[in-house]
Amino acid sequence: MSIEVREDKLTPALAERFAATLDRDVFDAEAPQGIHWCLTTPDTATADLRFDGHPEKIAFLPAIAQPRRMWASSAVEFFAPITVGARVQRTSRMIDMVEKSGGSGPLLFVNIQHDIEADGTLALREKQTVVYREAVEVSQPVPEPKPFPEPAPDRGEGWEWQRPIAPSSALLFRYSALTFNTHRIHYDAPYARNEEGYPGLVVHGPLMATLLLDLCDRELGRNQLATFAFRGKAPAFANEPLLLCGRPDEKGITLAILGADGRMVMEASATIA
């Protein structure tokens, strides 16, 4: 079984850029949960990127024929905070691969485990599911996106925590820079429309998950979660009004991101440490 070990350091500069991206105050001690997605990032040479901007090969995965890749879900266990200045080590391995059939054709679900240590202590464990599929046939260029509808008036009903946000193209660009993510659907609008059939720039799945973790941070305080799991339900697009939602109860926290039309963009859950 192939294992990849990558090392990094949470520098003050990265901490400041992460805080600025989320419009939060600078922190100099414990980092917010979700910072790990900005550490041990890929460093594939530009010459080795595919047409879509994604790396041609991921070190610990076998060769995969399907060209399109989507981060579908993750389940994270938090054990200890990552502090500014910490030396970080991520050990990644594939758990298994499962073939399924979907409306768009054959799908390959790849399950991955990441163990992340900070200064030699296990900080978190993430089980990630990535979906691979065939390329989309776009018969003609997708027209420029129409203005998004006004948010449905009842879309926040029943949610104790609510925070509206419309992720801008600048926010998407900054998150791509933080995570060294070169997938063109997040910054190249003509490519996203004409090659992959989206109406505009696609908001990163981990960015939306980070926004939900940030919602918990704003409501509960820093590093209060023991677990966090999310699943993407529908794509979201730059400048679309979204609603970050949370509903705590005795069992934990139910979380969601709702689109302007009321659709479920992401569903998530968390438990408190």
Description:
By secondary structure, the protein is an alpha+beta fold. 16% of the residues lie in helices and 36% in strands. It has helices at residues 12-21, 169-179, 189-194, 205-220, and strands at residues 3-9, 68-78, 87-102, 105-118, 121-133, 161-165, 225-232, 242-249, 252-258, 264-272. Strand 9 and strand 10 (264-272) form a beta hairpin. Helix 1 (12-21) runs antiparallel to helix 2. It is globular and about 50 Å long.
- In this structure, how is the largest beta sheet organized? 10 strands, antiparallel
**CATH evolutionary superfamily:** Hotdog Thioesterase
Low-confidence stretches: none
In CATH terms, what is the fold-level topology? Thiol Ester Dehydrase, Chain A
- The CATH architecture would be Roll
CA-based gyration radius: 18 Å
- The count of strands amounts to 10
What is the count of distinct domains?
1
What portion of residues belong to β-strands? 35-45%
CATH class: Alpha Beta
What is the topology, as strand order, of the major beta sheet? Answer: 1-3-4-5-2-7-10-9-8-6
